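Quick sanity check, Xylose transport system permease protein XylH:
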Amino acid sequence: MRGARDRDDRPGGPGTGDAAAQEPAPESVPAVDSRLIVREEGFRGYAGEFRRKLRSGELGSLPVVIAVVVIWTVFGSLDSAFLSAQNLSDLSQQIVGTGMIAVGIVFVLLLGEIDLSVGSVSGLCAAIFAVLNVINGMNEWLALLVALAGGAAVGLLHGFFFAKVGVPAFVVTLAGNLAWNGLMLQVLGTSGTVNIPGDSIVSELYSTVFESPVAAYAAAAVGVGLFLLASLLDARRRRAARVPYRPIAEIVLRTVVLAAIAFAAAVVLNRYQGLPLALLIFLLVLVVLDFVLRRTGYGRRIFAVGGNIEGARRAGISVAFVRMSVFTISGTMAAVGGLFLAGQIQSASQTSGGGNLLMNVIAAAVIGGTSLFGGRGTVWSALLGALVIGSIQSGMNIMGVSNAVQFMITGAVLLAAVVVDSLSRRSQKAAGRA
């Protein structure tokens, strides 16, 4: 009886016996990473991957794209002037200064840190250019380089105190926000305002527009062509390495979508004046820095440090170098943005870099999809976030809404973006991906 009970207790239940026990075990099948399904199963796998990302909180740029569509739909229905070619063209120029500074903030946020000095740094660099070129007669190109070098030096100094001395980035950049604002006032002197001529390089970089329709269409065609070429080369490289790659049909679909957006934008710009040089420069900067982040070892080190600093350190990554270089980039981009803002208003004054600029650039980076917790985001977040902030301000200006209400609405949008980021990170933790 005992032997019978033992046989009955075996896995498989009564009657399995020795014959069942001698059956060969089925060959074990290795688990497949669900992240690879999209490239292994084509569009059906892509759809499944998209659903999986939504469930696990990997929303990417989807929320901000939906936000732009909603904002444009609402303001367009309230006042048709919002979607006019003139307003959209003006909007594409107005977001450049804020967007440039936000690009530097994206780099810092990828480390899970913050830079509170970018507003003051942008104003200081604009003041340096204006005083050297307009007051002291220095060659405008040399004055431009000195201003950019000043922004890089300030960022490097912040990075040194943070990475080498160990002072928290929040404290270092908060002190810098005060110090560089004071230095800007000192540079401007008693006049407090330096007007920049309309034919200055800074003014022309902002205001120049390529009026020929060919320019906008050519820029759209080149951008789409480069995207297609890069996608095909990446797929071939991954195929040669025997790793999952995007199918040709998916690459074609992505290219068609991008082409529709690019040429639609070209049509709108050509209906007013043409392609703004400032917008073209902004897009070129985004393309270059996106390549640096996603296609170079340096970019991978930034994500590694932001995702897991101890793991990055054990992998042999120089954490101090990454931190110092990222803050240098942030200072440099603050200088670039400050010069564009100075060109927009054709002056450098005591209010340069002040007001709500700091909050707007941080909001642009976060609203665009860059995580406050580090390790997740792209430089395109700066463009999307700046577009959201600029669209809200433009729409409310057209409707005559007061600045007080604009600040409250912008703050609410920023809070919503942070909430989405927090919920996304919680979902990723639950899915074992954070």
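Posting the structure with no commentary besides this: The CA atoms of residues 21 and 78 lie 75 Å apart.
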